């Protein structure tokens, strides 16, 4: 399946509450933004998740799930 506009959904939650969302058409760009969000917003109580909306698969979470 080719990349589609808004296919890759990045979500930031803080203490379990939604704080920010972003959608990108390229997985490469979305993963780059994930790294940026970790640097800018990653801290105590933060969780960042990248989902492929085309397949419904969670591609990665930060911090890593134990």
Structural domain count: 1
H-E order = EEHEE
| Rg, Cα atoms, Å | 11 Å
- Percent range of helical residues: 10-25%
Broad structural category: alpha+beta
- Shape, please? globular
Continuous helix count: 1
**What is the rounded distance between the termini?**
30 Å
Count of distinct strands? 4
Strand order of the largest sheet: 2-1-3-4
Average pLDDT confidence is 92
Beta strand %: 35-45%
pLDDT < 50 stretches: none
Please give the largest β-sheet.
4 strands, antiparallel
Question: Could you explain the architecture of this structure?
Answer:
The protein has 66 residues and is of the alpha+beta class. The protein has one domain. 23% of the residues lie in helices and 42% in strands. It contains one helix and four strands; from the N terminus they run E-E-H-E-E. Strands 2-1-3-4 form a four-stranded antiparallel beta sheet, covered by helices on one side. A hairpin with a 4-residue loop joins strand 3 and strand 4. The termini are far apart. The model has no long low-confidence stretch (mean pLDDT 92).
Provide a short characterization of the protein structure.
The protein is α+β, with helices and mostly antiparallel strands. The protein has one helix and four strands.
List keywords for this structure.
alpha+beta; 66 residues; 42% strand
Task: Please give the structural blueprint.
Blueprint: E1 8-14, E2 17-24, H1 27-41, E3 46-52, E4 57-62
Antiparallel strand pairs: 1-2, 1-3, 3-4
């Amino acid at each position: 399946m080719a990349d589609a506009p808004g296919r890759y959904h990045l979500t930031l939650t803080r203490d379990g509450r939604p704080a920010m969302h972003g959608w990108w058409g390229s997985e490469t760009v979305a993963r780059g933004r994930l790294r940026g969000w970790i640097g800018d917003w990653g801290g105590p109580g933060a969780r960042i998740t990248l989902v492929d909306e085309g397949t419904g698969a969670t591609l990665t979470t930060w911090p890593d799930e134990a």
